[in-house]
Design brief:
Layout lengths: L5 H4 L4 H8 L8 E4 L10 H8 L4 E4 L4 H10 L2 E4 L11 E3 L3 E4 L4 E4 L5 H6 L1
Parallel strand pairs: 1-2, 2-3
Antiparallel strand pairs: 4-5, 5-6
């Protein structure tokens, strides 16, 4: 996937978009989001755009179609209902929890249903 595509996913966020264009955000970075991440992004291009930059998306919830497309295309997505993080926080992922090392807090990961786990 082209590396330049993520900048189009965040075109409305000028500060973040500028950081992407200037390679200030390393590949494999984590995006922490709220509820219903990906709402309105039902096409596969929305996911492939993020996959091109190898983002890990951790959110309190995902839009249903976006989540299925993410699983199908191999975008790393994690659901954690109580996740808290600020830009620059150090995040560690374990099998059943996420640790925000900066804030010394732990957050439970919600497992995907078995049918979706089998796709991964």
């Amino acid at each position: 996937l082209p590396e330049e595509t993520p900048q189009f996913a965040f075109a409305d966020n000028k500060e973040f978009n500028t950081k992407l264009k200037n390679s200030e955000i390393p590949k494999g970075s984590t995006i922490v989001a709220g509820n219903n991440f990906g709402c309105g992004s039902s096409r596969e291009q929305a996911v492939s755009c993020l996959k091109g930059y190898d983002f890990i998306i951790i959110a309190k919830g995902f839009a249903r179609i976006f989540l299925q497309n993410a699983i199908n295309l191999g975008l790393r997505v994690i659901i954690s209902l109580d996740i808290e993080a600020d830009e620059g926080d150090e995040i560690e992922f374990l099998r059943e929890e996420v640790i925000n090392k900066t804030k010394s807090k732990r957050f439970k990961i919600i497992s995907l249903p078995k049918a979706r786990q089998n796709i991964i």
